[in-house]
């Protein structure tokens, strides 16, 4: 099952909004087939593993990280491919909560006489597909917050200078992360201060949309985002503070304007609802501090990816990674789970997940 999980990971960024799935076929203690879901619309992991196994799949055990599908979607049902191959035992890490499956795949196999087991490495499988599970449960994308900071917790100097906190290798890794996302989110403050392009260079398996939270419609028509809006999608989230003239000017440049009612900040939950309706599964929030604070206050940061540079700035800089309402007691602060730490050419990279505001049991 661990080999199947490693296979599933190979599809990250290429299969969404489908889940990442891996599968291996074992006969008489020997690995005879393996595969993963390679891209959206392509054959599923079980079919790939059975294809490699060939006749050796007859009488074998198939391990799969997610319950095999039993419906016709982009591809035929995996359950029927398993039965046709003569597999006699299936071990699934977890059930698929997708309504058209939801236990039906395993039930179909049992009815046909296949020995079915479930739950092996279930926690690892659920962690792997947390973005898929969140979107099924809530309709909202999975949110990863990314930032780079100095050793004393600053994201820029007092003058606003932030180039560069992290090193070249760290920045290259951020571009790899961007290339697996459906969208990258920044606030208007970051857009004005940095004039970012927010693309993945070199390109990854996905082309992420650029999303700017800009209640008053201040994004310059000469910015790199607006100048490239016809090449890579730019979504500008506005409120009624933005004048009709500003909305029209941004739309004329190829930006897609999303208007929210009211004159306050762009509301986080309705924004995520809208992005989820557009089929987005993974969202990368790159700042600034007020935007990240708003996502934290809304309980909508699911994972963090932080680069800590061996730099000490000192001073009274107002630039911190996360602002918002915050916590009044240290005992109430959010604690990172599943922390992973690595060194990247001198920078410290810290990744982990936050307690979810959603729960797998809520999936239909």
Write the topology of this structure:
Layout: H1 2-9, E1 22-27, E2 30-36, H2 45-53, E3 61-64, H3 78-85, E4 89-92, H4 104-111, E5 115-118, H5 122-128, H6 130-138, E6 142-149, H7 168-178, E7 183-187, H8 188-194, E8 209-213, H9 224-227, E9 234-239, H10 244-252, E10 256-260, H11 268-277, E11 282-285, H12 289-297, E12 303-308, E13 337-344, E14 347-353
Parallel strand pairs: 3-4, 4-5, 6-11, 6-12, 7-8, 7-11, 8-9, 9-10
Antiparallel strand pairs: 1-2, 1-3, 12-14, 13-14
Helix pairs in contact: 3-4
Describe the overall structure.
With 364 residues, the chain is an alpha/beta fold. Helices cover 27% and strands 22% of the residues. It is built from twelve helices and 14 strands. It has helices spanning 2-9, 45-53, 78-85, 104-111, 122-128, 130-138, 168-178, 188-194, 224-227, 244-252, 268-277, 289-297; strands at residues 22-27, 30-36, 61-64, 89-92, 115-118, 142-149, 183-187, 209-213, 234-239, 256-260, 282-285, 303-308, 337-344, 347-353. The protein has a nine-stranded mixed β-sheet. It has a five-stranded mixed β-sheet with strand order 2-1-3-4-5. A hairpin with a 2-residue loop joins strand 1 (22-27) and strand 2. The longest helix has 11 residues, at 168-178. It is elongated.
């Amino acid at each position: 099952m661990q080999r199947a999980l490693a296979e599933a990971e190979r599809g990250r960024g290429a299969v969404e909004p489908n889940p990442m799935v891996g599968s291996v076929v074992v006969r008489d203690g020997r690995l005879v087939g393996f595969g993963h879901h390679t891209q959206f619309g392509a054959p599923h992991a079980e079919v790939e593993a059975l294809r490699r196994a060939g006749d050796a799949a007859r009488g074998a055990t198939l391990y799969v990280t997610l319950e095999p599908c039993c419906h016709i979607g982009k591809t035929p049902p995996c359950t029927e491919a398993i039965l046709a191959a003569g597999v006699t035992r299936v071990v699934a890490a977890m059930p698929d909560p997708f309504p058209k499956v939801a236990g039906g795949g395993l039930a179909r196999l049992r009815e046909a006489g296949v020995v079915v087991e479930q739950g092996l490495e279930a926690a690892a499988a659920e962690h792997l597909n947390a973005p898929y599970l969140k979107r099924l449960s809530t309709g909202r994308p999975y949110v990863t917050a990314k930032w780079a900071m100095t050793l004393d917790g600053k994201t820029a100097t007092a003058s606003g200078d932030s180039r560069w906190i992290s090193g070249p290798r760290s920045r290259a890794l951020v571009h790899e992360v961007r290339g697996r996302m459906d969208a990258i989110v920044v606030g208007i403050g970051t857009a004005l201060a940095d004039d970012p392009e927010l693309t993945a260079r070199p390109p990854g398996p996905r082309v992420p949309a650029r999303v700017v939270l800009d209640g008053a419609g201040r994004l310059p028509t000469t910015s790199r985002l607006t100048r490239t809006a016809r090449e890579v999608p730019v979504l500008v989230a506005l409120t009624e503070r933005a004048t009709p003239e500003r909305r029209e000017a941004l739309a004329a440049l190829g930006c897609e304007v999303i208007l929210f009612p009211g004159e306050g900040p762009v509301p986080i939950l309705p924004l995520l609802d809208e992005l989820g309706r557009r089929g987005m599964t993974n969202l990368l929030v790159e700042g600034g501090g007020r935007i990240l604070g708003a996502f934290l206050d809304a309980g909508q940061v699911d994972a963090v990816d932080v680069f800590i540079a061996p730099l000490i700035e000192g001073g009274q800089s107002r630039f911190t990674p996360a602002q918002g309402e915050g916590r009044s007691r240290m005992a109430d602060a959010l604690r990172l789970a599943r922390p992973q730490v690595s060194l990247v050419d001198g920078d410290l990279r810290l990744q982990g997940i936050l307690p979810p505001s959603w729960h797998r049991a809520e999936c239909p």
